[in-house]
Write a structure and sequence with these properties.
- The structure is a single chain.
- This protein is mostly helical and 87 residues long.
- The protein is 97% helix and 0% strand.
Amino acid sequence: MNNVQLYFAIGIPTFTVLCSLVIGIFQLNHTMSLINARFTSLEANMNSRFSLLEARMGVFENDMKTLVKISNDLDVRLARLEERTAR
């Protein structure tokens, strides 16, 4: 066995392992970027849904205020009628 055969016997497997590690790192980086993109999309989707929910809650809150106001007005009117009938 001469020196060239020794270099090939040691160098080719080492080069193959090194190439597979580099390719694996690139694949991992690509996968992580895809996952980050999915999370960003999910975050945007959830933010829009929460905004819609907050808008609906605002409408519900306004409706409840209106109902409380009407209920108070009816209570005042009922109290006046009770005063009139008690006389």
